[in-house]
Each structure stands twice: as C-alpha cells, then as structure tokens.
C-alpha cells in the first residue's frame, strides 16, 4: 500500500508507539482489502468502552491494555495519546444510571466509569448512542468518516451523503489516533452507485412499514445497493433510521438511494450512474407479509418485556410513547424499557416525557440496549419490540421469543400484557 | 488405470489472493450463507447462533471456514477477535465476497485468509474435506473426503 511521508513516519514510530501500532493495523487491514492507499478522516465513531465481563481481565491490567488489544489489535501495550480525529463513543453495555435494573455487577459499572474517564481525557466524546447523527455528529456530504454501527453507517452514507465503510472496533481505534482509514469501498465515488432497482407496489408509510421494507430488501440483496422507486410519502429521520437498521440486519446493506430524497441522486438514472442494473424486484403486499412473518419468533401471546428504541429513539418517538402512556399503567407482569441517547433523555426530562413514562411504570434507558448488553429484565421469556433490528437479533442472542410490531402494538402489549399486533 | 492411482484421493488446487498471510490445514466447514459476528456467533464457543442459519449450533473452532463472507453488525471483527482470545477461532478463512467486516475480521483473528479464488470454493469444497491454505502462495489445496 502506498503511504505518504507523514504516514510512513507514523508507521516507523516517529510519532510514538501508539500511532506506529495503529498504522500497522491500518496497513494490514488495507492490504487485506486490496486498498491502494489511506484517506484522511476527521470523524470517527467507534466502540472504545470497556463494559463486558470478557473485557474485565484485560481492564484489570489497565485501560492501555484494553485499547492496545481491542482497539489496535496490538500485542505491545502502548501508551494512548489524545485522539487526533474528532471521535465519539457509540453505544455501550451499561446504562450508567439504570445499571441495577439491568442486573449489572457493580464492578463492571466501575470499570465502565473508569474507562470513560480514560477515554474522555483523550478526546473520545461520550455520546454513548448508536445514533450519533441524532445528537450532534452530522457529517456533511462528501465527508470521509470512519464509523462503526451498521445502522449509523447506512444512515451516514445514504441519508447524509458522507462516506464511510462499516468499520470495526480495531480500525476505528487506529483511525482515531492517526486520522487515517483505508481508501476503499464507499470512500470511492463509483462504488456508491445503485446496483438493484426495487419497485414499490404498495405505500410505505409509517415506521413499521419502513422497517419491513428494509428487512425484506436486506434479505434479498445482501450487501448490494438498492435504488427505491415509487415511494408515496416523504420519509423522515425516524423512518429512514429504521429502514436502514433493518436492511443492515437481515443483509449487509450499507448504502441506498431514494431518488429525490437522498442527496446523491435526484433521478433513477443518476442513482445508477451508468452502472449496469444487476437486478430488479418488486415489493408488494406479499413481500411485506413475508418480512413481517420472518420477524415473528414467538408463539406465546403473553409478553413480559417491551423493548422500544432500537436504534435509539428521537425526541419525537419518546414524546409519542409518553403520550400513549399518559395516565395509564402498564401491566404488572410486564416491563417496558424505552431507549434514547442521554442528550435526548435530558430534553425528555425537561418536557415531562420522562415522568409520564415513569408514572406508567416504564423506564427510560440510555447508553445501551438489551442486544448490546445482553441483559433483559430477569425471567423474560417473550419480548415485543417496534424494531426489526432488535426482533432480528435479540431472540438469537438471548434465547427469548420475540414479537415485532408498531409502536402502538407494543405500547398496547405493555398495557394489557398480551400481544395483539397485526401485520 | 493401476490400483495406486485409483486409491489416490482426489485433490483440487485453487488459486487466489492472500488476505492474511500464513499457512494452515484442517477439516473444512462449508456454508453458502454469510455469517454475522456480533449477534450471529457465540465468541466463547465459536458457534453460530443466528436463528434460521443453516449452521446454527455448529462450531467453527479449529476448522477451515469456507463461506461467502460477513454480514450484519460492525461488531464482526471484535467478535472474531474475541474467538481468538478465547482460543475458538477458525484455523483459516476462505471466502468469496470482500467487505471491510471480513477483511478486518480476518486480520484481527490472525488466521491465514484467502479470497478471489479461480474456482468457486463454495461448490468445490465440501464440509469434511481436508484443506491446506497457503495464503502466501495464494493456494488452497483440497483433498476430497472419502465417500461414506
């Protein structure tokens, strides 16, 4: 791989051991990809935190050990300097306030807090959410980023027109210290064009509709780039957030175009940019039904846990849940957790949404989610969620049964203790 | 045809591009389905856990993993990284579809890895075949398992 003089100097250790190890990882990674060079980045969103039992033995040796092993893939333990790129922490495993409810051991909470201090001093900003674009990290069109979190990556590429591949814990760790990432994949203009045309035969309207569409598309096209034709409604942040998260869960979609809506194509032709269309498929009532059925993994109507807010909820979503719960009480056998970024939680508190949810018996969580933390209320057997992503992952990870539906279906199940959602 | 030739097991050599250097040999575990890292495997046992995956419940620990590649969450590399720290990583990876997840994942799993093969490894190699991966030479040598 071709390196600039400055990159070579970092690689050779002239700027310290941490950058040398970071460059070593970036070169191994770049060569594995077949990349010709690196590209500068000043926007890194990664997973730096220490919050799981498996990290504990490493963290006990010191936080430098955690960063060296898990964020740089380095056997050599290096002193970690200040990040050179603007860097933020994505979702973590522990809610710093609600850890007892999560059933987290105090020693893990202490580890996460100590690790946050370590990272904070080095410039890793503690957004602690899977949705950095909801709390201030909104890259501009064309900006080269190094982001993890598949639902954030697809949003960054498609909705914002910024450029990132799905990075990992180690590559973001190296990018944050060097301001470099392999110039490959979605950093390159030609690779951003559409591959498949998806023709909508039905209206795709609410958040659940968009989740189902995403889930269907991901399963059909894997990692290709869909171009969606025939939308009948203007989607907003929430709908596209859910659409992308679903498509990145059932498949590996990292970019899509909705001509006229997303910034890199005003027309179908522009979306394909002269690329040969690899395939065309239609999405109608039967396909929607198929996606819906694939997302249900429960046979039991009695639910015990309602999970809302994957990806983390916007303030409008929290407001809607508060409204639906106003002056009501959730069923005594049911727990309801609503997940939103800490910054949005503060707004929710000020607006009284937090109290409305709390008074009904629900909990507003931040920093984490059950799939990431692998922690659910004790004894949970059957969950319900408004997230296709969570319905896809949570049963696999934790062995529970799962229902997927609209936010109203889920709140209704929280109040009655019984699932009665409908496609 | 003399008996010696007849008895000789069938071998096939595929040529491809090195992703991660090194040489390994072992029994192939082949799936035509992509694998999720985070949420798709148990990093303590090396077992696939994804609902509806054809390899659900099967462990790739110590196997030559032959698969189309990675899908799903960006935790892919971190989870395969953990399989290495836990000693349940595959011995080598042979895959067909290059992505950042599989590239970084193979790098941090630190096992020989190879792609861009001149024949489709998913149809040439079957579970149980004996496979030698020489990533530096860019070769995959497949000895077909004896018919049962």
Could you describe the 3D structure shown?
Chain A: GO terms for molecular function: lyase activity. Chain A: Pfam families: AcnX. The complex is a heterodimer of chains A (423) and B (148). Chain A has 423 residues and is of the alpha/beta class. In chain A, 41% of the residues lie in helices and 12% in strands. In chain A, the strands form four sheets. Chain A has a five-stranded parallel sheet, with helices on both faces. Chain A has a four-stranded parallel sheet with strand order 4-3-2-5. A three-stranded parallel sheet of chain A has the order 8-7-9. In chain A, helix 13 (315-325) links the parallel strand 10 (305-308) and strand 11 (335-339). In chain A, helix 1 crosses helix 2, helix 7 (150-158) packs across helix 10 and helix 9 (207-221) crosses helix 12. The longest helix of chain A has 17 residues, at 17-33. The mean pLDDT of chain A is 96. Chain B is of the alpha/beta class. Chain B contains four helices and twelve strands, in the order αββββββββαβαβαββ. Chain B has helices at residues 3-7, 76-85, 100-109, 121-124; strands spanning 11-15, 17-20, 23-30, 35-36, 41-42, 47-48, 64-67, 70-71, 92-95, 113-115, 130-134, 139-143. In chain B, strand 11 and strand 12 form a beta hairpin. The longest helix of chain B is centred in the middle third of the chain and has 10 residues, at 76-85. At the A-B interface, helix 2, helix 8 and helix 17 of A face strand 2, strand 8, helix 2 and helix 3 of B.
């Amino acid at each position: 791989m071709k390196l600039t003089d400055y990159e070579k100097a970092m690689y050779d250790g002239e700027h310290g051991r941490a950058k040398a190890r970071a460059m070593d990882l970036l070169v191994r990674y770049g060569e594995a990809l077949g990349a010709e060079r690196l590209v500068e980045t000043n926007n890194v969103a990664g997973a730096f935190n220490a919050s799981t039992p498996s990290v504990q033995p490493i963290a006990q040796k010191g936080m430098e050990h955690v960063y060296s092993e898990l964020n740089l893939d380095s056997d050599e333990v290096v002193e970690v300097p200040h990040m050179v790129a603007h860097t933020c922490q994505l979702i973590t495993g522990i809610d710093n306030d609600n850890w007892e409810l999560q059933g987290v051991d105090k020693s893990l909470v202490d580890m996460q807090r100590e690790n946050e201090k370590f990272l904070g001093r080095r410039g890793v900003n503690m957004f602690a959410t899977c949705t950095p674009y909801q709390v201030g990290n909104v890259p501009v069109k064309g900006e080269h980023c190094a982001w993890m979190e598949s639902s954030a990556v697809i949003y960054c590429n498609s909705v914002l027109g910024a450029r990132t591949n799905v990075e990992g814990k180690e590559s973001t760790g190296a990018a944050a210290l060097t301001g470099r990432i392999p110039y490959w994949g979605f950093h390159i203009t030609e690779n951003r064009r559409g591959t498949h045309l998806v023709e909508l035969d039905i209206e795709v309207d609410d958040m659940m509709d968009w989740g189902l569409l995403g889930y269907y598309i991901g399963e059909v096209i894997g990692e290709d780039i869909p171009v969606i034709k025939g939308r009948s409604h203007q989607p907003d942040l929430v709908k596209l957030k859910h659409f992308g998260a679903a498509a990145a869960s059932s498949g590996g979609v990292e970019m899509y175009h909705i001509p006229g809506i997303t910034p890199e194509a005003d027309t179908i032709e522009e979306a394909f940019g002269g690329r040969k269309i690899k395939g065309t498929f239609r999405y109608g009532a039967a396909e929607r039904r198929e996606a819906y059925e694939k997302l249900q993994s429960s046979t039991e109507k009695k639910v015990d846990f309602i999970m809302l807010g994957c990806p983390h909820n916007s303030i409008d979503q929290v407001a809607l849940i508060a409204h639906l719960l106003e002056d009501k009480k959730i069923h005594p056998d049911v727990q309801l957790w609503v997940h939103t970024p800490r910054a949005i939680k503060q707004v929710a508190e000020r607006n009284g949404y937090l109290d409305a949810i709390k008074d009904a018996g629900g909990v507003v969580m931040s920093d984490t989610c059950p799939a990431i933390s692998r922690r659910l209320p004790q004894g949970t057997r059957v969950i319900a969620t408004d997230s296709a992503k969570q319905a896809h992952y949570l049963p696999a990870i934790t062995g529970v049964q799962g229902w997927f539906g609209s936010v109203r279906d889920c709140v209704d199940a929280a109040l009655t203790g019984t699932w009665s959602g409908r496609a | 045809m003399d008996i010696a030739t007849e008895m000789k097991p069938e071998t096939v050599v595929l040529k491809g591009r090195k992703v991660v250097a090194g040489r390994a040999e072992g029994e192939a575990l082949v799936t035509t389905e992509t694998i999720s890292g985070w949420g798709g495997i148990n990093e303590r046992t090396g077992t696939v856990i994804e609902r509806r995956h054809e390899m659900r419940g099967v462990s790739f620990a110590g196997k030559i993993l032959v698969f189309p590649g990675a899908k799903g969450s960006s935790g892919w590399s971190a989870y395969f990284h953990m399989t290495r720290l836990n000693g349940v990583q595959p011995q080598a990876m042979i895959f067909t579809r290059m992505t950042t997840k599989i590239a970084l994942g193979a790098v941090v799993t630190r096992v020989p890895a190879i792609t861009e093969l001149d024949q489709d490894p998913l149809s040439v190699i079957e579970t149980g075949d004996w496979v030698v991966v020489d990533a530096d030479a860019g070769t995959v040598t497949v000895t077909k398992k004896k018919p049962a």
